[in-house]
């Protein structure tokens, strides 16, 4: 009996970053028996299916007995309960090394020790925050999976499910057009339903990235199903160039019609400005450096299931920072301390990478190292005075710009120091803006000016031009990606919106913009789409 | 040029001074101004007295120097961590997943024949490292062990050696390996020597180097 409890503990030890459910434990512990049960469940004979269900239930009950004993002993705890009361469990341990030996063989479990002394003072004053502190070291922050290599429905779904437990924010599915080509309409619907359910269960985001120029006719089915589900945690990024906009106007009209009807945001990435993917998490926008992406596609794409985009991240509330502190020097010092904390976090990740990222390493075997090659960390900024005009903002631009240079130099020096000591590391920090969902409690209310557009002519007003120019400048500093959010109000024809997209794609250097229809009153006129 | 000193700190300072005074400047691929001397040999008679002193000195500066745990893990841990392109430990203790060069070769060899001149290990793998597109290639190429007067002497061959930032870490790591082998052989540690093909410093570090000197 004690043996089974030890086996369970060892499974938790080997999956430190994961929340495990009963089914996972049953499969791990009774592998052979579970295979037999699966065969029975897949049988066409009703008696066999009935027997399979009965035996599966018995195994679940057996494991739950031991799990409950471990819960009573205060060793594991319920982390969450999802659909139909299904429970997930995690180890109930403190930071550092935990040795469980009371009645068991000695089991040493290492949980990350969070070295945060450099930013403690800022955290305690509510101006700085780590993203999902409990898992900010032992999980990836965001990863991108390549659909071109994993377009078969069950393989892709299994990968997604595996990866959702290994990230603490977002999984992006790049070149989803391959999936549309490979899967049947029914498989697309099933896949969408499953990922929408899973992202909610795991409280993670997912970005579906589609190149409009390469989609087939199943895009219409996908759009209809997606907007019908209207998922909370799955967004779509449409990669478009100005040329694509004209060539694929029928598809884009359909997207505008269906998305606006459900008041779902449309995210457009300008392919003419950036070749690297952009995607959207809870914490903010993610992207890859264009040069890195070029190297990745030429040398590594295809060796791996995808690529890690980011490891750890910290947000800074700028308005609140300057309520507590008052000088630029203090700001630069604070951001540099955040960078040092990220370096420390990366050091732990490196040393424990085989333990924390075991599943991902296995999935990428024998090229596991390639998966990490383009990963960065993020420092995100919240509430940085967009309601002020450009002149007043100029100081802030210069401050963020000079701070970015300081952080880049720090990263370069550290890479050099480590490489010189025989430790070939990659250590990069990207700047970006934060979303409120980074941590709604910490962020508080958003303090910025909304860009509202009622018609295409609004883009030619001095006020709007100034606004977008500021954002263009910010995009240059925010190398981790950013987005321009346009609130579209008033009735429109779909062709009006395409014209507005064209203005943004042609006139400005804005790699990603979002059309938000939440301000629309009621339904858009039916005649608009006839 | 050969520099002979009793301890690590004196050897380090003398080498830095030698490079400053005799080195030739050039720009590296990152456009950094580098001052270099070729084929610098440094012999440290008693590395055991202060093998960690140079890395302690490096912690006084604004950067974060790798922790002693990470430095020792890099040289002594045979586990191949996926996150590194390469790591010294696996190349020493599990070369190509096949050969523990220390426990399966050096130690049995020197136990059998304490006068052997064949006790050399390689950290360079031409199959993967001789690739012009490869940006991360080991600097530490070979380590040679020799028992003399009942002590284990160690010599390492380094192709490219940042003497200010890298050498302190290298010395710390190699001494740990020297001690590991000496303990297994029940001998004492002897001298530690480095042969650096390109021994260099960077202009941007001159101010800090002068603080050490």
Key phrases:
heterodimer; A: 530 residues; alpha/beta; Arc Repressor Mutant, subunit A; 2 domains; 12-stranded mixed sheet; 21 helices; 19 strands; 48% helix; disordered C terminus; B: 213 residues; Thymidylate Synthase, Chain A; 7-stranded mixed sheet; 8 helices
Tell me what you see in this structure.
The complex is a heterodimer of chains A (530) and B (213). Chain A has helices at 2-14, 22-29, 31-41, 46-72, 120-124, 153-164, 177-182, 185-202, 218-229, 242-247, 249-261, 290-300, 318-324, 328-351, 353-356, 358-364, 368-372, 390-420, 440-443, 462-477, 494-507; strands at residues 20-21, 76-81, 87-91, 96-100, 107-111, 128-130, 140-146, 167-174, 205-211, 234-240, 266-270, 278-280, 285-287, 306-317, 376-382, 429-433, 451-453, 484-488, 512-516. Chain A has 530 residues and is of the alpha/beta class. In chain A, α2 (22-29) crosses α3. The longest helix of chain A is centred in the C-terminal third of the chain and has 31 residues, at 390-420. Chain B is α/β, with parallel strands linked by helices and 213 residues long. Chain B contains 8 helices and 7 strands; from the N terminus they run βαββααααβαββαβα. In chain B, strands 1, 2, 3, 4, 5, 6 and 7 form a 7-stranded mixed β-sheet that branches. The longest helix of chain B is centred in the last third of the chain and has 20 residues, at 166-185. The mean pLDDT of chain B is 92. Classes of the chains: A alpha/beta (530), B alpha/beta (213). The interface between A and B is medium-sized, with 30 and 31 residues.
Number of helices of chain A: 21
Structural class by secondary-structure content of chain B: alpha/beta
Going by helix content, strand content and strand pairing, the class of chain A is alpha/beta
Given as residue ranges, the uncertain stretches of chain B (5+ residues, pLDDT < 50) are none
Question: Biggest β-sheet of chain B, characterized?
Answer: 7 strands, mixed
Mean pLDDT of chain A: 86
* End-to-end separation of chain A: 69 Å
The residue-averaged pLDDT of chain B reads 92
Count of individual beta strands of chain B: 7
Tally the helices of chain B: what do you get? 8
Say what oligomer this is. heterodimer
Low-confidence stretches of chain A: 522-530
* Radius of gyration of chain B, in angstroms, nearest whole number: 17 Å
Task: Write down the CATH topology of chain B.
Answer: Thymidylate Synthase, Chain A
Amount of helix of chain B: 25-40%
| Number of structurally distinct domains of chain B | 1
State the shape of chain A: globular
Task: Note the main sheet of chain A.
Answer: 12 strands, mixed
């Amino acid at each position: 009996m004690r043996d089974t409890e030890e086996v369970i503990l060892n499974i938790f030890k080997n999956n430190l970053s994961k929340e495990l459910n009963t089914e996972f434990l049953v499969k791990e512990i009774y592998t052979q028996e579970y295979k037999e049960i699966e065969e029975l469940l897949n049988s066409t004979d009703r008696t066999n299916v009935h027997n399979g269900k009965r035996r599966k239930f018995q195994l679940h009950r057996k494991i739950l007995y031991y799990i409950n004993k471990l819960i009573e002993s205060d060793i594991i705890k319920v982390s969450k309960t999802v659909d139909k009361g299904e429970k997930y469990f995690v180890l109930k341990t403190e930071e550092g090394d935990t040795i469980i030996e009371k009645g068991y063989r000695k089991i040493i479990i290492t949980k990350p020790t969070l070295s945060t002394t450099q930013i403690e003072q800022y955290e305690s004053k509510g101006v700085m925050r780590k993203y999902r502190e409990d898992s900010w070291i032992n999980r990836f922050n965001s990863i991108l999976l390549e659909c071109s290599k994993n377009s078969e429905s069950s393989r892709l779904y299994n990968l997604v499910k595996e990866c959702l437990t290994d990230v603490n924010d977002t999984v992006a599915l790049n070149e989803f057009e391959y999936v549309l080509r490979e899967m049947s309409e029914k498989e697309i619907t099933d896949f969408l339903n499953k990922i929408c359910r899973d992202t909610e269960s795991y409280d993670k985001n997912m970005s579906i990235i589609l190149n409009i120029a390469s989609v087939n006719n199943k895009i219409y089915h996908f759009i209809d199903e997606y907007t019908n589900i209207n998922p909370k945690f799955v967004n779509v990024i449409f990669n478009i160039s100005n040329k694509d906009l004209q060539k694929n106007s029928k598809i884009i009209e359909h997207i505008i019609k269906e998305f606006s009807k459900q008041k779902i945001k449309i995210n457009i990435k300008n392919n003419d400005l950036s070749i690297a993917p952009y995607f959207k998490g809870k914490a903010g926008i993610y992207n890859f450096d264009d040069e890195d992406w070029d190297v990745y596609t030429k040398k590594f794409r295809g060796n791996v299931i995808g690529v890690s985009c980011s490891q750890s991240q910290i947000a800074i509330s700028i308005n609140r920072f300057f309520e507590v502190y008052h000088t630029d020097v203090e700001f630069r010092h604070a951001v540099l301390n955040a960078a040092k904390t990220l370096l420390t976090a990366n050091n732990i990740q490196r040393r424990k990478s085989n333990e924390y990222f075991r599943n991902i390493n296995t999935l990428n075997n024998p090229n596991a190292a390639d998966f990490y090659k383009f990963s960065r960390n993020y420092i995100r900024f919240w509430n940085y005075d967009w309601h002020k005009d450009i002149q007043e903002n100029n100081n802030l631009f210069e401050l963020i710009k000079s701070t970015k240079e300081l952080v880049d130099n720090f990263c370069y020096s550290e890479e050099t120091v480590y490489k010189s000591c025989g430790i070939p590391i990659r250590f990069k920090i990207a700047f970006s803006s934060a979303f409120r969902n980074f941590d709604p409690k910490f962020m508080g209310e958003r303090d910025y000016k909304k860009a509202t557009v009622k018609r295409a002519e609004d883009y030619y007003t001095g006020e709007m031009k100034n606004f977008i120019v500021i954002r263009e400048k910010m995009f240059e500093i925010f190398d981790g990606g950013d987005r321009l959010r346009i609130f579209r109000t008033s009735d429109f024809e779909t062709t009006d919106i395409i014209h507005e997209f064209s203005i943004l794609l042609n006139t400005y250097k804005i790699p990603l913009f979002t059309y938000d229809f939440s301000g629309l009153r009621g339904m858009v006129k039916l005649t608009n789409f006839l | 040029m050969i520099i002979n000193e009793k301890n690590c700190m004196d050897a380090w300072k003398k080498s830095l001074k030698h490079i400053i005074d005799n080195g030739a400047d050039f720009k590296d691929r990152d456009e950094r101004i580098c001052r270099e001397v070729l084929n610098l040999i440094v012999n440290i008679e008693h590395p055991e007295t202060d093998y960690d002193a140079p890395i302690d000195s490096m912690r006084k500066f604004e950067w974060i120097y790798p922790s002693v745990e990470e430095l020792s893990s890099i040289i002594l841990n045979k586990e191949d961590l996926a996150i590194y392109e390469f790591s010294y430990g696996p190349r020493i203790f599990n070369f190509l997943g096949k050969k523990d060069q220390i426990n399966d070769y050096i130690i049995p060899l020197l136990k059998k024949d304490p006068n052997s001149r064949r006790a050399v290990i390689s950290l360079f793998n031409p199959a993967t490292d001789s690739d012009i597109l490869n940006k991360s290639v080991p600097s530490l190429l070979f380590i040679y062990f020799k028992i003399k007067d009942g002590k284990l002497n160690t010599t390492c061959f380094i192709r490219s050696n940042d003497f200010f930032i890298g050498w302190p870490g290298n010395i710390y790591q190699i001494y740990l390996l020297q001690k590991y082998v000496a303990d297994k052989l029940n001998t004492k540690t002897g001298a530690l020597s480095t042969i650096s093909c390109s021994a260099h410093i960077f202009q941007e570090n001159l101010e800090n180097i002068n603080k050490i000197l």
